[in-house]
Each structure stands twice: as C-alpha cells, then as structure tokens.
Amino acid sequence: MFRKILIANRGEIAVRIVRACRDLGISPVAVYSEADLESVHVRLCDEAVCIGPAPSVESYLRIPAIIDAAKATHAEAIHPGYGFLAENAEFARAVTEAGLIFIGPGAEAMEIMGSKTSARRAAVEAGVPIVPGTVDPLTSFAEAKELAGKFGYPVMLKASAGGGGKGMRLVESDGELQSGFDNAQSEAASAFGDSSIYLEKAVSRPRHIEIQVFADSHGNVVHLGERECSIQRRHQKVIEECPSPINDAGLRSTMGTAAVKLARAVNYVGAGTVEFLVADDTREFYFLEMNTRLQVEHPVTELVTGIDLVREQITVAAGAPLSFSQKDVRWSGHAIECRVYAEDPENNFFPSPGRIKYLQLPFGPGIRDDSGIELGSEVSIHYDPLISKLAAWGRTREESIDRLRRALDEYEVGGIKTTLPFFREIVRDGEFKSARLDTGFISRFNERRAQTKDEGADNGTHHDIAVIAAAIQYAKLQREANFKSGSTDGQSRWKMSSRAAQLEARNLTSVRGARTHERK
Ligand code: MV4
Predict the structure, then answer these.
(1) Atom 24 of ligand 1, residue of closest alpha carbon
(2) pTM
C-alpha cells in the first residue's frame, strides 16, 4: 500500500480524499494556491505545497508544478479528484512517466471517452445502445441536412469534444438547421478549441440515469447500480439520488451489464460512470457518455451500497483486486444529495463569494455532509462555488426526504448566499415528493415557485388590509358601546381599545413576519 498520496485538488473533494487516506493509514499531501493557504483541505493534510497564484491555470491546472510537488514530498501516487486535471490524459501520462501512480484509469481509456464520437464508436463495438445518430463528426452542412432528414426531427447537434451539454443545440425543423449548425460549431470551437460536431436524434423528456462502474487491474469489472440525475439546471446537476425512482431490479441489471461491457471494452481501471438517457415512456436507454473520474454525486452510491469508493480507488490503484464481487453488492434504502452552492437562488443563481460568518451544521440520523468549508472560510470567486454536499439516507425515499428536509432546516450558512433555501422548497414540492423527475422538472418547479410567490405577496397585502380594517372596526364598536352605555369614562376606554387593536395588529403581522423572515 502507498505511504503517501498527493491530492491534486481543493475544497470538499480534497477533504473527502484525505478521509479515505486516513482510513488506510496513508499520509495525505495537499497542494494549494495562494488563495487557499488557510483552507480546510490544507490543514487536514500532513504536508502542503503551494503551487501558484489563485487562478486555476496558474495553480491547480499546472501539470509540472503538481508533479514537482509530488516528487519533492516523496508521494507515490496522485489522486486528481474531479474537475481540474481529473480527465486530462496528458496529465495521467505525465504522472506515469514521472514514475508515480495516477489514481484513475489509463490515459487510453480517458482519450477514447474524451471524444464523444469515439466513445459512441466504442459503445457500438461493445454492443451498448447509443442514441440514434452519427458516430463520426459531421463534415458539412449538406451532410447534416441529409442525416437530419434520415433520422427525423427533432435532432440534437453536439460538440464532439464536449459533454455536459456545452455546445449542444436542439433543432426542431429543416428551417432551424442552418443556424443551429453554425451556433453549435462556433460554441464548440470557443469552448473546446475544436469545432467538430455530431448529430443525434432528440429523445423527448428523457431521464438522466448513470451507472457507477468499478474495475481493477486483474480484469474484474462490476457495477454499483444507478444514480438518478434528471434534476438539472443549465446542464448542472442539482439533486441526485440512488436508486432511481423509476428503476427496478431488472432495469438496473440490464443497464449495469451494458455499462460493465463498455468499461471492459476500453480496459477500464478504477471508478467510472456511464451516463444514459432513459426515455420516460418506454424506458429504453441509450449511452450518452462515460466520465472517467470519481463523480461529485458518488456519496449517494456509497450510502446505499456501503462501499467506500475513494478507498477502493486507492487500493485498486495500488494493484489490489476489488474488495467485493458483483454478487456482494447490495442496495439498501434510499439516498438523496443536494449540491450546496455559494449562489443566490433569488438572483438567478449568481455566485455569492465571501467569508462564512455563521455556520450551523446539520447532524443526526441518516445525515452526511461532505463539506470543504468551516466558520471563517473565504469562498473565492476563482473556483467552483460548491461548498458542500448534503446527503440523507433513509430506508425508503420518503424517509430520506424527511431527513433531508430536517437537515436542510438545521443547516445555516451566514455571510454568503447559498442554494439552501432553494432546496428547502424542493423537498416540500409535491412533484418532487411524488418523483416526477424528468429533465423538465426545474423549469416547471420555477414556474410553480414564481406563482406561489405572487400569491404570497397578494395574501400578504390582503392580510395587512384585513388587520387594519379589523382594528378600525374594533375601535368603532368599542366607541359605540361606550356612547350607548353613557359612560363618563368614554374617552379613556376608546384610547384603551384603540391601543389593544394596534397591539393585536402588530402581533398578527409579527407572527406572519416570523414565518417568512429571511434566513441568515
Ligand atoms: C440529449 C437530450 C435529448 N436527446 N440528447 C446531454 C448532456 C446533458 N447535460 C443534457 N443532455 C441532453 N442530451 C438527446 N439526443 C436531452 C438532454 C438534456 C438533459 C439530459 C439529462 C438531464 C437534463 C437535461 C436537460 C436538458 C437537456
């Protein structure tokens, strides 16, 4: 086993990798940018090396600086986490050539999956269904037109070098094809430095379901079931769960077997994820892409299978066989994860950097919080604004939602805006609770939300008017009563009832205020 591992990442995932290292008795080494000197991941490691200024291109993306740091600290292996260099084949090669071990698949498997068209060819060769379309980049607009006619509208144009929805265009008819073609090409060129695009038939209201696979260097390949990732906002996952509410044991086994076949076909080693689109109506599934890294949402698989994916990545990289076989994998209960971002959900999810001035963390039955921050942390504008992943496990989906709701209400982050209030609304949403989770979920949810907010504002105004009217009416009645009784003390009793009405009004409004008051 390794004695020392360098973690080429930051934030919550670096902290997650530290924990697996500690479990295995391995000494973790941090790298950090000048902006991250005081961060949690640095403090939790035994050693730390500064690799440059805050911008990622000058620090976390600098291959030579990271390899030098590993050599200088005598680390034997490098864990890339996700993002940054995790799916960079050139980095994997440089690590190996420096005599170190890259904790992840070989550079060849990464290259095949890095290009969506070559990934689609690999899937076809492995006998895994792909979305109908081309497996080679389009060579001309005329070819696009012919193929769109052949497969039938609507079609999707996607960047070969892309993934995750960037450079993707939905084209509904012949008339839209030219502009879609031009836009997709130029977006691909500017985002990936590669303008090649390919064509797929569009799947209507698909679900995004992915399969976790794991392979060792001895030819064992297994799957750990699916994650439901259909709730996305601008192609970013928002909530992930395991199992998928639409999956049954049969579909899991069929999709799992397909994913294992694909991993085997590219001699995959380590943790990987095979993404599928699943048609909502027919449950037919199609290969979309394979991610050759540990994914952000891996905790839901860990909670349901009990398998520590990061520990397994490390032992497999050290040459050990998988610690379990396919028949040992059991799925128990249900887990849901929320990505807590330093973003303002009331302002179009605008990034909200700054210092954490108050922090109340959630704990208790079934709760796991994978966090990279603490009280006093500075959330920098230079990096992804993910600050933590809050996951809840329960015996059933209902129980995991109950626990998630409780944890979200406990969780308070002050000093910056976060997506916590957005999740507090989602876990109370009827469509979410009844698992209507196709890819249109977020836009429908936002519509419902805007509607409720409008009604809320109206109710508020009506309520205020009602309170004022009640106070006036009360005062009037009191006054009439005073006059009728011929009381000599009418004046002072009118004053008292007026004061009582005012107090009542204030109490009523303050109760309403307490229910809707802004969280820190
Ligand atoms: C699609 C699609 C429909 N048909 N491909 C791919 C990357 C992902 N972020 C969006 N992708 C899609 N690819 C075909 N042929 C619909 C989507 C899609 C989507 C997929 C899963 C979850 C949410 C989504 C939101 C919009 C579009």
Answers:
(1) 439
(2) 0.88
